[in-house]
Inverse folding.
């Protein structure tokens, strides 16, 4: 598993993929949070970086599928998957090795945004007038959200040898899981009985629940189950080969 | 360390890609796996390496059954798949280090240098795999297959894309490896089988149509023995029928004939004939049936 993890990470960072995705994420976040007025931290009366946690999921919906689309699709296309699956590593370790490599990338992507927290911390009046506990919980929520998107990305990538198909499917499912359930729960026919149940199936419901600063085991269980489901399904589609 | 394949079958949809085949490869043997495209060679090899699960039958490598989930047996197998898939974004040495890590090798550095030297890759080892020519990529494929010193090698068209000089080198390497290891080698280059293999299994439409060494196979096909003879003087071809055991002949020029007859005694009969006719024999050589010929006879649709 270590070999696969290191190879994945190496190939992300020896090619442009990791740098482009990281650069794009930070450029868009930086512009939205500090330059353009609509979501700007500077134009809100409170010292908070809530706009980071509102914007980041939207960017992740596109960015993470772009990052994960190649993981299995490219190996299937180039037939290197065949050679990988005949090596003495179980399919579990292959999937987990790749998954942990994407999580590492996710962590690296989030680290520079701590600078924003520091900036807002300094800008507060008096300095440091900011709810750090709530921010820490929000970061945790954002990481879990990104982890689910990574798992969805790996899953769709394992279904096809076409990277574009993997990307489009991953964007679609990330969107459905993030926002789709909320939209469905708004339908008039669900009002009053099923709407809260349907809403609780969506990622956003649990994400915002964590963002409030309380890490509830139900939210945690939701994220872990969703990740487990995607990873197991990915494993199953690797194990089943005609 | 040997491979036993018994009653192996694999069905894709309506097509029986591999249909009840059985064969064995003994330790220290190079078995040539021959057949037209789509005959089921690659499918069989994929099943032996554990990539595909057979629908029926059993594969034993070193008396251990190959199944999809057994990873222990895979450490003993080196596999070079068809079309030689490689990570093009890696450097040669980096790739071999990665392979060594997967096999959890102790002290991989020395072994990597050894394999680089064996496969003639030392001069290219600092390059990106994507910048290598096809012949060198093929060597990288071979290098990753032998890196962990496996006892069984499965080589699917190992020498495709090599130029004649590289062919000779790589064949010599495979022959050298074949002294200690069990090698299953698929190819449709006939000379390769003649140059390398101890035994041949010919497969067509998923079934084994022949299994044996090359002289045995040619005997199986036509029980004739063919001799090329050059006489000192031109002779009337009709008189050749006086040769004891004569079956047929093929005239090359006025002096040279290929004479086919029953059994090996035809050589003596030709000699006697020449003495009787006061002819001198300038050249005489037995002709072995080429694998190409055998292959065509066995696999062409009737």
């Amino acid at each position: 598993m270590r070999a696969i993890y290191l190879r994945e990470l190496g190939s992300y960072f020896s090619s442009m993929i990791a740098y482009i995705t990281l650069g794009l994420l930070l450029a868009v976040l930086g512009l939205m949070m500090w330059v353009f007025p609509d979501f700007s931290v500077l134009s809100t009366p409170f010292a908070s970086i809530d706009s980071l946690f509102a914007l980041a999921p939207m960017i992740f919906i596109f960015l993470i599928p772009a990052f994960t689309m190649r993981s299995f699709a490219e190996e299937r296309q180039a037939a290197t998957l065949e050679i990988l699956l005949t090596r003495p590593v179980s399919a579990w370790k292959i999937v987990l090795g790749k998954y942990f490599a994407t999580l590492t990338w996710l962590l690296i992507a989030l680290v520079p945004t701590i600078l924003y927290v520091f900036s807002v911390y300094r800008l507060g009046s008096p300095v440091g007038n900011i709810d750090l506990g709530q921010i820490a919980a929000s970061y945790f929520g954002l990481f879990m959200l990104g982890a689910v998107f990574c798992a969805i990305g790996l899953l769709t990538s394992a279904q096809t040898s076409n990277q574009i198909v993997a990307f489009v499917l991953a964007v679609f499912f990330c969107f459905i899981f993030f926002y789709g359930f909320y939209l469905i729960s708004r339908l008039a026919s669900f009002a009053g009985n099923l709407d809260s149940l349907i809403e609780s199936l969506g990622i956003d419901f649990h994400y915002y629940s964590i963002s409030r600063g309380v890490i509830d085991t139900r939210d945690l269980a939701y994220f872990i189950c969703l990740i487990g489901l995607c990873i197991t399904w990915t494993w199953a589609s690797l194990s089943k080969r005609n | 360390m040997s491979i036993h394949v018994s009653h192996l079958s694999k069905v894709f949809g309506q097509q029986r890609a591999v249909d009840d085949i059985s064969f064995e490869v003994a330790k220290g043997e190079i078995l040539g796996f021959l057949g037209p495209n789509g005959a089921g060679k690659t499918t069989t090899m994929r099943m032996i390496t554990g990539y595909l699960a057979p629908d029926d039958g059993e594969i034993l490598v070193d008396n251990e059954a190959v199944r999809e989930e057994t990873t222990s047996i895979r450490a003993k197998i080196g596999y070079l798949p068809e079309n030689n898939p490689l990570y093009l974004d890696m450097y040669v040495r980096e790739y071999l280090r990665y392979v060594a890590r997967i096999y959890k090798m102790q002290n991989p550095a020395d072994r990597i240098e050894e394999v680089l030297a064996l496969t003639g890759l030392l001069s290219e080892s600092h390059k990106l795999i994507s910048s290598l020519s096809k012949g060198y990529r093929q060597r990288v494929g071979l290098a990753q297959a032998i890196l962990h010193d496996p006892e069984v090698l499965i080589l699917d068209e190992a020498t495709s894309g090599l130029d004649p000089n590289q062919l000779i080198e790589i064949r010599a390497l495979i022959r050298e490896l074949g002294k200690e290891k069990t090698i299953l080698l698929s190819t449709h280059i006939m000379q390769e089988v003649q140059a390398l293999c101890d035994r041949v299994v010919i497969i067509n439409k998923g079934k084994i149509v022949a299994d044996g060494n090359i002289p045995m196979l040619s005997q199986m096909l036509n029980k004739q023995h063919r001799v090329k003879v050059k006489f000192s003087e031109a002779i009337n071809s009709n008189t050749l029928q006086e040769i004891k055991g004569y079956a047929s002949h093929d005239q090359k020029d006025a002096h040279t004939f290929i004479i086919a007859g029953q059994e090996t005694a035809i050589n003596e009969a030709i000699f006697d004939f020449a003495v009787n006719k006061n002819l001198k024999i300038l050249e005489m050589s037995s002709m072995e049936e080429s694998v190409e010929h055998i292959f065509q006879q066995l696999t062409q649709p009737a």
